Amino acid sequence: METDPITEADIAAAEKLLAIAYTAQERAQMVGNLQGQIDSAVARRKVDLPNTVPMSLRFDPRLPGFEMPTADGVTGSRPDAPLPESDEDIAFASLPQLSGWIASGALSSRRLTEIYLDRIARLNPHLYCFATVTPELALAEADAMDELTAKGLSRGPLHGIPYGVKDLFDTRDIVTGWGAEPYQNRVPESDARIVTMLREAGAVLLGKTTVGALAYNDIWYGGVTRNPFNLEEGSSGSSAGSASATAAGLCAFAIGTETLGSITSPSQRCGTTGLRPTFGRVSRAGGMALCWSLDKVGPICRGVEDTALVLAAINGGDVNDRCSIQAPFHFDAAKGIEGLKLGYLPEAFEEGATDVDRAALEAAKKLGIEVVEVSLPDLPYGALMNVVYAEAAAAFEHLTLTDEDDTLTWQDEGAWPNTFRKARFLSAVDHVQLDRLRYLVMQALDGLFKDIDVLIGPFMTGPMLVASNFTGHPCLHLRAGFEELGTRSPASLGAGKLTTGEADDSGQKHRVPQGISLWGRLFEEGTILNLGQALEASLGVADERPRQPD
Question: What residue stretch is flagged as signal peptide (predicted)?
Answer without folding.
Answer: none
